[in-house]
Design a protein that fits this description.
Helices cover 41% and strands 17% of the residues. It is an alpha+beta fold. Strands 1, 2, 3, 4, 7, 17 and 18 form a 7-stranded mixed sheet that branches. Strands 9-15-8-14 form a 4-stranded mixed sheet. A hairpin with a 2-residue loop joins strand 12 and strand 13. Helix 13 packs parallel to helix 14 and helix 15 runs antiparallel to helix 16. The longest helix is centred in the middle third of the chain and has 18 residues. The radius of gyration is 23 Å and the shape is globular.
Length: 418
């Protein structure tokens, strides 16, 4: 990890002092630390282009480049889709060639980088929802369902069979509760077709669908776990450890998480648990912070940007990235390529299992992958500050709940006053 951060520092110095005006470097803005290593590998592979990485915590918010700062040529990171609506990207169509074939990518992910018929963003990596459970339950779950995935309805069904109470009705075992994890609550929301759009400083959504969603979650709670209070009491008593440890106590059956967190666990912990990719309506919903890459519209070095992206999306080069990461022990707490599954199917099916043995014959089904929609600017903050708190307040029957519309208006006002 320290080595990667040193590479970012050296990159910044290079941009400021290392190149003449006639030989400017290819500048990559990223919020993913692993791109520093990839850039170094690219530079070692050829001598024509000097690429440097600059870390930006919020890439789109950092545009345009400040006075005296070299503008980026490539933007590579999370939460970039909203930039397509603000014309921040040039067409990335020239990246595709005989080696970088669009058919090599997960179709839904690649399609999500288009506006109209033009490809502006190319998917880099992604993560998907997963439930983990004690290895002792593997055989039973295999008999009842798939060996690689589990649907939301199956989680609910299996939970009812696992639960145990005392004569007084106190739970000694509770398999799973939707409200234990706000990411799971949001997954249920997205999988039921609920989306939020923005128009004239208003937030728009289908109120009936949201009401139906609330009813669905409440019915899950009352039919499986008795009440919200029972779920909260159980969590307070027993679920104070990381998700993978919770299931090893055999108090709960499932713990919900995302692939990047589970796959990054040490082998000795992975060997004690099993997992299934979570699906809903036969789809596996990709986490919204997936990594994308695109060519900045105002780049002065678009030809070099195309060459870097062609190099990056070559499966053979991604294999070298993974090999280098392992051999140099670079940031091994991060899973896979750029913190997730590669957007290239071949890499996940043939190369990743070499480094992550639990993925052998256990990679997600390509046709089930469903990419996030195009979200509005500041969606990360709006989701965390407004949507999730509103949903949890509704499900907990809190008093004096402020509507999403009013919260958004207040949020906008506070932002303008900053």
């Amino acid at each position: 990890m320290k080595l990667i951060h040193k590479l970012f520092v050296l990159a910044a110095i290079t941009v400021i002092t290392g190149c003449s005006s006639k030989n400017q470097p290819l500048v990559i803005w990223t919020d993913n630390v692993e791109f520093a290593s990839y850039t170094e590998l690219f530079n070692a592979s050829q001598k024509d282009i000097k690429a440097v990485c600059i870390y930006k915590e919020n890439i789109l918010d950092s545009l345009p480049a400040k006075k005296g700062e070299r503008r980026p040529d490539i933007l590579a990171g999370s939460w970039l889709r909203s930039g397509m609506h603000h014309n921040q990207f040039a067409s990335a169509g020239r990246v595709f060639n005989d080696t970088v074939n669009p058919e090599n990518f997960y179709p839904s992910l690649l399609e999500s980088g288009k506006r109209g018929n033009t490809q502006y963003l190319i998917p880099v990596s992604f993560n998907i929802p997963v439930v983990v459970f004690d290895l002792n339950h593997s055989d039973d779950l295999k008999k009842k369902g798939s060996a690689t995935s589990i649907s939301v309805e199956e989680i609910r069904e299996f939970s009812a069979e696992f639960n145990k109470t005392t004569r007084d009705g106190l739970y000694t075992k509770m398999a799973f509760a939707p409200q234990w994890n706000t990411d799971f609550l949001y997954l249920l929301l997205a999988s039921r077709g609920i989306s939020f759009t923005f128009k004239s400083n208003q937030i728009l959504y289908n109120t009936q669908l949201l009401s139906d969603y609330r009813t669905y979650v409440e019915e899950w709670t009352t039919s499986i776990n008795t009440s919200t209070n029972d779920e909260k009491d159980f969590a307070f008593k027993y679920l104070y450890t990381p998700s993978y440890k919770q299931v090893l106590q055999n108090r709960s059956l499932f713990a919900f998480d995302y692939s990047n967190n589970i796959m990054a666990l040490p082998d000795e912990l992975i060997s004690k648990i099993d997992f299934r990719w979570v699906t809903s309506n036969s789809k596996t919903y990709v986490a919204e912070n997936d990594i994308m890459a695109g060519i900045y519209r105002r780049s002065h070095n678009k030809s070099a940007a195309v060459k870097f992206l062609q190099w990056f999306f070559n499966p053979k080069n991604q294999e070298q990235m993974l090999k280098r990461k392992t051999s140099m022990n670079l940031d091994t707490i991060n899973f896979g390529l750029a913190g997730g599954f590669s957007s290239i199917r071949e890499v996940n099916e043939r190369i990743l299992p070499v480094y992550y043995h639990c993925l052998m014959a256990n990679v997600p089904d390509a046709q089930s992958i469903k990419a996030p929609g195009v979200y509005p600017p500041f969606w990360k903050e709006i989701k965390a500050d407004i949507i999730i708190p509103y949903i949890t307040a509704e499900l907990n029957h809190s008093q004096n709940i402020v509507s999403i519309t009013q919260q958004y208006a207040d949020w906008l006002k506070a932002r303008h006053e900053e």
